[in-house]
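Example S7 (structure tokens).
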């Protein structure tokens, strides 16, 4: 604030502390206040827009999840349009599985050094790679028989089938938190077995049947199993001496 009578400058007050004259806000001060108000308003607007976008995305995924839970094969009809939601389902499944396995491991009185972040990173990446094997195998079988499904369609369709298993892994985590480790372990193991070994063969048979080609689903299944077995064997050979295998072996200790 600037006193036009004596030239005194002060930050607060309506009257000059030197001469008592009524103070006048300088142009620079006015511009500074306006700039601060504008910045604050812009931040509030950006924050509100961000919150609205988050709410919209959550609503879209919740609607997607509910529809997929009622009819998992619905993802096939939507093709690549559900790729993002399919990827979210895959990531959620892996994250919940990894967290459940961490608390299972932590509950054991074993001499395994546990730190959440390294554990989560290693097991998450390993599980992601495990899920990638059947997805790639489906695509190879699809390519061999000329079904012409893109990788995006296959990933979206696979993720769309995970809704029941997402609930299963979440239930497993609740059992583990409730110290019902045996039940949590059984459900967790079943969810992983179904997602890696049972769901993908169903998908390849479903795709071949839906395309109405001359290919018999049996041969498509055979090609899938052959490629999956080769890649899975190579994968096991690579990680055989890795300490991360110990975490998965814990599933057999209950």
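Recovered sequence:
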């Amino acid at each position: 604030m600037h006193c036009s009578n004596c030239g005194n400058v002060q930050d607060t007050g309506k009257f000059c502390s030197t001469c008592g004259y009524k103070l006048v806000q300088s142009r620079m001060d006015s511009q500074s206040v306006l700039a601060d108000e504008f910045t604050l308003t812009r931040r509030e607007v950006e924050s509100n827009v961000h919150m609205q976008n988050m709410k919209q995305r959550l609503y879209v995924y919740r609607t997607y999840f509910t529809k997929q839970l009622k009819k998992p094969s619905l993802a096939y009809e939507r093709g690549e349009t559900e790729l993002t939601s399919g990827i979210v389902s895959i990531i959620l499944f892996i994250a919940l599985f990894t967290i459940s396995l961490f608390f299972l491991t932590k509950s054991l009185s074993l001499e395994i050094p546990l730190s959440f972040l390294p554990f989560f990173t290693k097991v998450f990446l390993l599980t992601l790679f495990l899920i990638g094997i059947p997805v790639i195998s489906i695509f190879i079988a699809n390519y061999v028989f000329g079904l012409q499904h893109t990788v995006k369609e296959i990933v979206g369709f696979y993720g769309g089938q995970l809704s029941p298993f997402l609930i299963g892994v979440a239930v497993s985590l609740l059992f583990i938190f409730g110290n019902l480790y045996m039940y949590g372990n059984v459900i967790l193991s079943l969810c992983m077995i179904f997602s890696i070994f049972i769901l993908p063969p169903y998908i390849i048979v479903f795709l071949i049947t839906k395309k109405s080609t001359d290919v018999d689903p049996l041969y498509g299944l055979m090609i899938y199993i052959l490629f999956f077995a080769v890649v899975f064997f190579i994968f096991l050979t690579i990680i055989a001496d890795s300490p991360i295998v110990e975490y998965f072996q814990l599933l057999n200790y209950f």
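Notes on this example. The radius of gyration is 29 Å.
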